[in-house]
Amino acid sequence: MNIIFLGPPGAGKGTQAQRICAALNIPQISTGDMLRRAIQEQTPTGLKAKSFMDAGGLVPDDVIIDIVKDRLQADDCKNGYILDGFPRTVPQAEALEKIAEIDRVIELDVADEALIKRISGRRVCLKCGATYHVSLLNGKTTCDNCGETLIQRDDDKAETVLNRLKSYHSKTEPLVNFYQGRGKLVKIDGAGDMDTIFDAIMKALA
C-alpha cells in the first residue's frame, strides 16, 4: 500500500509513520530526514536546501522531486511505502501522480497553538537522532542514549515555526482538497493520545 501523510509541521507524521511502517512492513520515506542528512554531509543539494529550511520556507520542487523519484525506485518500495513530508504542494502532487499510484492519504489535524508549543520545545541529538521535549527533560541537556549534548534545530525555533506554519497553510493545505477530490483522503485528529491516533490510522487503512 502506497500512503501519504499530510499535516502541519510537528503534527506527529514522523512518529506515526514509523509505527505504521512497522505494522505493514513497508519503508518510511521522509524527505526531511534525507534533506537533513544532505545538509550534515554538506552536499550541493543539502547546502541549497539549508537556506530555505533555516528561513522556515519550503525547499524548491526540483530538489525534492529528484530525491523522491530516486527513492521510490529502490527495491524496498516494491510492496508499498509511506511518504512523510512529500508532496508539500499541488504541483508536487501532480508530479507524483506521474511516477506513483497513491492508495490512501492520511491528514493529521492539529491546531497551530499546540504545534508551536510542541515544536519549539523539541530537542534533538545530532549523533544518534534521538528526539526529546523540554517538558519531559527536567532540565537535562544530554541524550539518554549516547550522552551527547541536545540542541534545538534552527527550524524548530518559535519564530521559524510560525513561518513554517504560514508556508504550510498557504502552499500545502490545498493538498487536502486535491486528495479529497480523488476520494483518497482521511482526516485524523492528531492532538490526542499516540495509541488512539495509531488505531484510527490503521482503521482508515483497513
Summarize the structure in words.
- This protein has a five-stranded parallel β-sheet, with helices on both faces. A two-stranded antiparallel sheet has the order 5-6.
- The protein has a domain at 2-111 and 172-205: 3-Layer(aba) Sandwich (Rossmann fold).
- The protein is 49% helix and 14% strand.
- With 206 residues, the protein is an alpha/beta fold.
- The chain is globular.
- It contains ten helices and seven strands.
- Helix 2 (31-40) packs across helix 3 and helix 6 (112-120) crosses helix 8.
Extract low-pLDDT stretches. Answer: none
- On the 0 to 100 scale, the average pLDDT is 89
Rg (C-alpha, Å)? 17 Å
CATH C-level of the domain at 2-111 and 172-205 = Alpha Beta
Largest sheet: 5 strands, parallel
Name the helix and strand elements from N-terminus to C-terminus, one letter apiece. EHEHHHEHEHEEHHHEH
How many angstroms separate the termini? 10 Å
What's the oligomerization state? Answer: single chain
Query: In total, how many beta strands?
Result: 7
> What overall form do the CA principal axes indicate?
globular
> For this structure, what is the CATH homologous superfamily of the domain at 2-111 and 172-205?
P-loop containing nucleotide triphosphate hydrolases
Task: Write a brief caption for the model.
The protein has 206 residues and is α/β, with parallel strands linked by helices. It is 49% helix and 14% strand.
